[in-house]
Amino acid sequence: VSVLYWRWRSPMQCHTLVIGGGIVGLAVAARLSRHGATVLVERHGTLLHETSGRNSGVVHAGIYYPDETLKTALCLAGATRIWDLHREGRVTAHHCGKWIVATDDAEVPALDAIHRRMMSRGIPSREVPLAEVATTEPLLRAVKVIESPRTGIVDAASLAAAYTADLEANDGLVALQTQVLGAEHLAGGTVRVHLDDGDSKTHIDAAAVVNCAGLSAHRVAALLQHDTVLQRVPPLHLWGGRYASCVGKAPVRRLVYPVPLPSLQGLGSHATIDLGGAVRFGPDAFYIGRASASADGPATVDPEECSYDIAATPGGESGFLDEMHEGVRRFLPSLPRERLVAGYMGIRPKLSGPTDGFKDFAIEREGNVVHCFGIESPGLTSSAGIADHVASLLF
Ligand SMILES: Cc1cc2nc3c(=O)[nH]c(=O)nc-3n(C[C@H](O)[C@H](O)[C@H](O)COP(=O)(O)OP(=O)(O)OC[C@H]3O[C@@H](n4cnc5c(N)ncnc54)[C@H](O)[C@@H]3O)c2cc1C
Description:
The chain has helices at residues 23-32, 70-87, 108-120, 130-136, 156-169, 217-223, 227-232, 316-329, 379-394; strands spanning 12-19, 38-41, 58-59, 93-94, 98-102, 126-127, 144-148, 152-154, 173-175, 179-185, 191-196, 201-211, 237-246, 255-258, 271-273, 279-281, 286-290, 340-350, 362-366, 369-373. By secondary structure, it is of the alpha+beta class. It contains nine helices and 20 strands. The protein has two domains: 12-54 and 157-234 and 359-394, FAD/NAD(P)-binding domain (3-Layer(bba) Sandwich); 98-149 and 236-350, D-Amino Acid Oxidase, Chain A, domain 2. Bound molecules: flavin-adenine dinucleotide. Belongs to the L2HGDH family. InterPro entries: FAD-dep_OxRdtase, FAD/NAD-bd_sf. Residues 17-393 form the FAD dependent oxidoreductase domain.
């Protein structure tokens, strides 16, 4: 990713300041740079350092979430943009397709419901004949398979590079190692954002600010003194998602998902592939804790102190691999446990705790600031859709 390093000079001004150099912040900065001078600040020394660098890279087709939600609408819009960028040769992606699999008769009604939803949304789909399943994915056990040919995978770094290029083409800037410390709201609506660039403390005056701080979005809202917004949106809950890499010959050639869990806290043990065809299983979903205060009490975990070490997670490495193998055996019964090794993990910034149902993305405007809360999956796919939505709230 080409990044312009910029030494800060005070006093500085910009039209829009975007907080967070994940995929959503980059998409938003690229989009808003059409309206005026845009600066993106990221506290780490690299882009995609947090959740945007720890996911499956799947370009979802907008299948799973309820109608008339931001997750569905922005996923559909964002996926269209990613495939357009792919056609233009600006991002690396692969239309590998996804098979959603019922492994026994009890799962067929849920799979049929998913298929009906795909058809009602105009999402391309087909039932794969079992003879074709046996010849193209011989290791797979399934009683019924629905294909989503529009689902695929994308290299998040190439998508970030495309957004960064669009930002820079409009004279926008990315400032790394620059952390937001707080803000003042000046007369006339200008927001003065206080920053630490590692060497010195400074500030920048912005006509508009967008909080794309991912796991820290609730914290950044508090730093921007927007406690009223925090009272409107649900608290932040952290859910870990661990992957197991599959060593040896790839057992499948496409994305394979079992019928998802009713809670949608995770999509079940599924197989994803990377652009080289290597297979990994996961992510699973385990609850870490509440990361912002709520009526139930104060935060129980700090997103900035969380470990990404699978050995330190519930069950440790071998417990996790045993559990993942149990799930994978549902659809790949002959795959030995020894083929699974611990991979990496990511953390989902969810707005739902263990006893809550579905919660949508919460994208809220307060004054001249837009906050993006709960940008979990399908946030990578939705990034360009989120950017258009933020633009519609501001301009
Ligand atoms: C395990 C897992 C698998 C997933 N798989 C998929 C998938 O296959 N497809 C899909 O569409 N989505 C997927 N997602 C969701 C997707 O990864 C996220 O929705 C997306 O990456 C969120 O991007 P973001 O820019 O909002 O957040 P982040 O990537 O977390 O970026 C936020 C940035 O803000 C910065 N920041 C925070 N506070 C400050 C501050 N005070 N000052 C300056 N900078 C700050 C952070 O350093 C960070 O870099 C997955 C998520 C997980 C956890």
